[in-house]
Amino acid sequence: MSTNNPRYDLWAPRTRANPLPLYARMREEAPVVRLYDPHLRTPVWVVTRYKDAVELVRDSRFTKDMRKLSAEARDRQARSDAMEAINQHMLMADPPDHTRLRTLVSKAFTPRRVEELRSRVTAITNELLDDVRAQGSVDLLDAFAFPLPITVIAELLGVPVEDREQFREWTNIVINPPINGDFAPMQKAGMEFIQYFQKLLERRRAEPRDDLLTALMSVEEQGDRLSPLELISMLFLLLVAGHETTVNLIGNGVWALLQHPEQLARLRANPALIEPAVEEMLRYRGPVETTTQRWALQDTEFHGHVIPAGEPILASLMSADHDPEQFRDPERFDIGREPNRHIAFGFGIHFCLGAPLARLEATVAINLLLERMPRLRLAVDPAELRWREGILVHGLQRLPVSVD
Ligand code: HEM
Question: Pocket around ligand 1: residues whose beta carbon is below 6 Å from it?
Answer without folding.
Answer: 57, 90-91, 102, 109, 237-238, 241-242, 245-246, 249, 286-288, 291-292, 317, 344-346, 350, 352-354, 357-358
